[in-house]
Amino acid sequence: MGVRVTSSRFIGRSGELAECEAALREAASGSPSAIAIGGDSGVGKTRLIRGFEDAAAGRARFLRGECVELDDGELPYAPLMGALRELGRCEDPVLQRMSVGARAALAPLLPSLGETAGSEPDDESAQLRLFEAVLELLELLGEKQPVVLTIEDVHWADRSTRAFTAFLARSLRRERVLFLFSYRTDELHRRHPLLALLAELDHGERTRRIVVGPWGPGELGEALEDILGAAADEELLGRLFARAEGNPLYTEELLAAGLDGRGAAPQSLRDAFLLRLERLSSPAQHLLRVLATARSADEGLLAAVSGLPGGDLTAALREAVRSHVIEAGNDGRFAFRHALLREVAYEDLLPGERAALHLGLAHALAARPHRGGEDAVLTAQIAAHAHAAGDRALTLEAAVTAAAQASSIHAHGEAADLLERALEAWPHVGDAARIAGIEHVELLVRAAAEHEHDGERSRAESMLLAALGEVDDQAEPLRASVVLDRLARVQWGLSRGDEALASARHALELLPPGRADAERAGVLAWLARTTGLRGRYRDALEAARGALEIVHASGAGPGVESQALNTLGIALVGSGLTDEGVASLREALSLALASRDLAGTEAAYINLADVLLVTGRTEEALAVAREGLERAASHGRSSHPWIETSLAEIAIAYGDWELAASCLAGEQRTLEGRALLNVRLRGAELALGLGEIERARGALEEIEVLVAHSLEPQFHASFGLLSADLRRRCGAPELARVALEEALDRIEFCTDDGRRVTAIAAAGVATEADLAQRARDRNDEDALRQAEMLAELHVERARAAAASRGPVEAAWLQTAEAELGRVLGGEQPPAWERAALLWESLHRPYHAARVRMRGAEARAERGERDQAASCLAAARTIAVALGAGWLVHELDGLAARARLPVAAGAEAGLRPAGEATAELPFGLTARELEVLMLVARGATNREIGAELFMAEKTASVHVSRILAKLDVRSRTQAAAVAHRAGLLQPPAAAGLGLERGG
User: Is pLDDT of 648 > 90?
Assistant: First the structure.
């Protein structure tokens, strides 16, 4: 007889159980939630879930699935399929009440519905439709009684199951649903993909976490009393608590080794499990080796692989069940009572033994007849076991089949992994095409498609280039064109514009005339889009309209039409036809939403928000971007870099920098190409606003090469503006001039993008103003004339680019004209005031604050102290509210040197230097000595400011005081006096870093 070592009662966990009970009551009243149940291995997560199910029996419908530990996640949606399997088998009436579209979307998981999904496997919206269908099913099930959906061991979940977990946790609104999922905390290494998901869900208002801890002494005592039939003595209780540290599973294993708790003292839980297994008979141990390899199996599979006769098999099963090692499920399958037991049994296998068992399982499973909805699981299991056994032919055949199954249920990452496995096996298999049922070229193209949908563009490009190398474009022009078309899109995503355009044009040339109109429409629509992104709006208008004509004639589909309408809208706005462009973009959005085109919907939201931003409708742009992100967040993916970055850009302009930071805080390690460019540019922009110079510098340096290879003015303009701003702040306006010239060269080459030219021209005037001030400091007439000439050219460029444009261009032009006064040495405060009012009318507070600072400076120089103080206070209020550290620093420096009132809380370091010290001659302060040392080395006021982290005007005030104290008229005379007085030796603690001088 086996000794019972498990408590028959639910012990402890009263707080955790109460929280689950409360969540169920809330779900019953229409307030759903998700609970993540975490804890170490063996601590009792499953027991808590079962205890909750027992306590709530009759009050809810329970659906449960378990994740399975297999390499590379070969079982996409396995727990979800397990949870829903019984509904399909019993043909639950609620399935018939689902909408036709939902039934079709759910068919890949429940083929018994007899519907077709109505979408291609690579349809990016298909996974969303599948998830929404499951949500609809749960909502219908909840009409009768609340539903509890449980997924256990999510630390082993495949990518698609994690995506569903994220979707459901975010999408619950009023459904009578409670979603539970458990995970092992001791499995979550720092790069575990579940960590990012948990962190994201922690921000959700409907998600909570329960962490199951070890038993305390009291709970351990209750368990022992139930197991032993009498209260345990203090010695036994203390011994077990010390050895097991309150872990219920470890406690049970120690009891199994001896009820006095003194049984063989294992070095680890693994040793305790091995002791349990070694006590069983040889047939039972052999059976458990098979089951450990299979993970779960019915009696027929165990018989086929173990070779045990019927009677011996039954006896071995009984022995293992009585010993509390395995248990039988309601579906007739056997599994280890705890996953840790299975892991130990599997790890104890010899390599040859393990391979033989995997091969036996693969062949036994392959011999089974197809069973409809379980085909995906079956083929994935065959592929996994064949690979583990090293049977390459069977691996190839099963991996291709399993990948098709995974793709059919929109598990693209898993499908890509399986196809990679098939490609790896291909060269080692004779007659591979016959065994795989597919040509090598097509296998490469399929693998590329799955990688692309999973965000792995670099790998997708490698696959497509390999496929292209195997296609004769003269013999098979259509096939080569299709590969080139897909390659062009991937290359563009990697920010390699020239290569992408060459691939697309070659694809178009290869299409047979008078045929392949659908393919032609797709290529033309994509070329029109890239033409618009390059700022060639007139050409894009023509291309988009041509693509739409072919779309309507060929019936190419709503996806291509939506893309063409998107391009048309961008081109119209870029050509100055704002209302018509916005209408076209809204039409593209409606079409994408109606056809449930995920990619088209996101693109339409991003483009619509962007054109609203660049045309000055900032608040409307923010609302559209928020709506787009909310819709994207319900799509099941854990990251939405494009729409999040779009919202961040608008939030920065609008002044909601906390929102911008949250949008940019997501996981970015996997980003590449255009997506990486976009995120880093916005990150640099926010960092510059906050005053985080090194962070901005790092972001810009990371993407410099990508920008150089891009053909898009949006990236060139942003990179040039941010690089120039960074260099100006570091005291290098001549390098800022170079950055802007490079950006203009790239943008003005065959582009109609006047909007971005206006912004760069305004920045150019500001840069020339800095250089003009430096030239005056040095009495450099040639440099001054050059700065004045270039500034006037920039102003003329801004006027030409802003002609017939919108309010944003008008604000940039007014800013440029105000900066021109600074260049010419005759600033007019009303010009700065007009610029500030324009920026404020656009809801762009940061720009408004910066020009108000210039206005305050101009008024201070004219002696208009009250007006200057008012401008400064208004600008500082905005800067503090934004968190714009650099701007606050500049404003406080201006207040100090102009002796204007400064707000409470201004940094002391921004005030003028303190009183003279007794140790220094001429009444100089320590700060003035630092300035004097730089003057002696020929530094200008701007260079002094950059070196000592002060504003240029503050440096000028210090220099004037030094000249007065030394009773000299020039910097040269001051340096000579200092030299004769021996003042040019630096103080021991003064780390001036002179090598960084501008």
Answer: yes
**Residue 324 sits in the same domain as residue 258:** no
| pLDDT tens-digit series, residues 841-874 | 999 999 999 999 999 988 988 888 899 999 999 9
Which residues is 285 bridged to in the sheet?
none
- Could you tell me if 176 and 47 lie in one domain? yes
Strand partners, 65: 151
Interior/surface letters 27-51, b for 16+ CB within 10 angstroms, e for the rest = bbeebbbbbbbbbbbbbbbbbbbeb
Q: Of 716 and 665, which is predicted with more confidence?
A: 716
d(CA 933, CA 355): 77
Eight-class DSSP state of 116: -
Phi-psi region of 806 (alpha: psi -120 to 50; beta: other; left: phi over 0): beta
For 973-982, what is the mean pLDDT? Answer: 60
Q: What secondary structure letter does DSSP report for 57?
A: B
As a whole number of angstroms, the distance between CA 601 and CA 135 comes to 20
Contact 179, 144 (CB under 8 A): no
Domain final position from 330, 349, 368: 349
Question: Smallest Cα–Cα separation from 33: which of 208, 212, 210?
Answer: 208
pLDDT > 70: what percent of the chain? 87
What would the two tokens of residue 386 be? Answer: 């064949």
Strands across the sheet containing 296-298: 296-298, 333-336, 326-328
Q: Which of 708, 722, 690, 823 is nearest to 765 (CA)?
A: 823
Do residue 926 and residue 991 come from a single domain? yes
Residue 952 domain boundaries: 921-996
Q: Is 351 helix (H, G, I), strand (E, B) or coil?
A: helix
- Residue 141 corresponds to which tokens in the numbers above? 């099930």
Strand 177-184, strand 147-152: pairing: parallel
Residue 404 lies in a domain: no
Residue 168 contacts residue 179 (beta carbons within 8 Å):
yes
329 domain-assigned: yes
**pLDDT tens digits, residue range 808-830?**
999 999 999 999 999 998 778 99
State residue 109's pLDDT score.
80
- 927 within domain boundaries: yes
Q: Which amino acid is at 483?
A: V
pLDDT reading at 976 higher than 90: no
Q: Phi, psi (5° rounding) for residue 267?
A: -75, -20
Residues 729 and 822: their CA atoms lie apart, in Å, by: 17
Whether residue 4 has pLDDT greater than 60: no
- H/E element, 781: helix 781-802
The CATH number of whichever domain residue 342 belongs to comes to 1.10.10.10
Name the strands in the sheet holding 147-152, side by side, starting at the edge strand that comes first in the sequence: 61-66, 147-152, 177-184, 33-39, 207-211
Predicted local distance difference test score (pLDDT) of residue 264: 46
Number of domains in the chain: 4
Strand, coil or helix: 642: helix
Q: Do 41 and 56 fall into the same domain? A: yes
Beta strand 207-211 with 147-152 is: unpaired
Lowest-confidence segment of 328-332, 580-584, 741-745 by average pLDDT:
328-332
pLDDT beyond 90 at 833: yes
Burial class (CB in 10 A: 0-12, 13-18, 19+), 117: buried
Residue 163 CB neighbours (<10 A): 25
Whether residues 197 and 330 fall in one domain: no
Query: Given the DSSP bridges, would you call strands 61-66 and 147-152 parallel, antiparallel or unpaired?
Result: parallel
- 184 within domain boundaries: yes
Burial of 358 (0-12, 13-18, 19+ CB in 10 A): buried
Pairing of strands 296-298, 177-184: unpaired
Find all residues with CB under 8 Å of 282, minimum gap 6, and list them: none
SS3 state of residue 61 = strand
Residue 262: φ, ψ to 5°: -105, 5
Q: Is 202 exposed, middle or buried (0-12, 13-18, 19+ CB in 10 A)?
A: exposed
* CA-based nearest residue to 603, from 671, 674, 652, 514: 674
